[in-house]
Amino acid sequence: MSDSKLAGQFFDAAIGLLQRVRDEESDSIAAAGTAIADTVEAGGRLFAFGAGHSSLAAQDVVYRAGGLALMNLLTVPGTVGVDVMPATLGSALERVDGLASAVLDSSPATAGDVLVIISLSGRNALPVEMAQNARALGLKVIGVTSVAYAENTRSRHTSGGFLRDHCDIVLDSKIAIGDAELTAPGIEAPFAPASTVVTSAIMQSMMAAAAERLVARGIEPPLLRSGNVDGGHDWNGRVMTEYRERIFYRH
Q1: Is the pTM of this model over 0.85?
Q2: DSSP secondary structure code for residue 166 in this structure
Q3: What angle do CA 105, 37, 107 make, to 5 degrees?
Q4: 158-181 pLDDT per residue, tens
Q5: What does the pLDDT look like over 29-59, one tens digit per residue?
Q6: What is the DSSP string of 22-53?
Q7: How many angstroms separate the CA atoms of 52 and 118, rounded?
Q8: Do 70 and 48 form a contact (C-beta atoms < 8 A)?
């Protein structure tokens, strides 16, 4: 069987986006890494939030091998993914006013902590309010979004603003409006979204930058090891015990 032309085109598109982000967002990624390192050093906590498929990149940095143990998932029930019925409910909840406030008020997040908010479009009420309310509580907000949406679509929030308007640091994923990289004859809709690939890479690069900053300050980054390598469970147990007051996915 011959190679797939479209499969190769998707890889080319994804690689091109990754190169753009690496080259054009390096300063912002470094700033985000520094903010995370500052919070770790100061005894603060780290949180990540995303709704719908944006939640995939948030989950990718929580409780995983090679990841910072202090990164916690901030969840809004019904918006974490396609685990609700009907699946369209999650998208509808992103447009509901007040959810972000209720979640933040009930969460352990407090002044001095960092919250990374991931929203591809950044136009719905949930991520905008999450950023607004988090900053009002004294959190530092890092936004991962596609600036193209803020420049070429209308906000769905009553303020008329986008996620990028309420962040301390903004990382632009460069994803085009519609989040589909390919078109082809005979296929009516554009397809092959790359936002998960690119956004997850941004998140991991941010974590790498944070680890680099911590080591430069003489601080051992609180990283987790794989539980599938010898000694991994013992290592993770020690890390979780040492930082138990700042880890909220362990009960």
Answers
A1: yes
A2: G
A3: 10
A4: 676 889 999 999 999 999 999 999
A5: 999 999 999 999 999 999 999 988 899 999 9
A6: HHHSHHHHHHHHHHHHHHHHTT--EEEEE-TT
A7: 10
A8: no
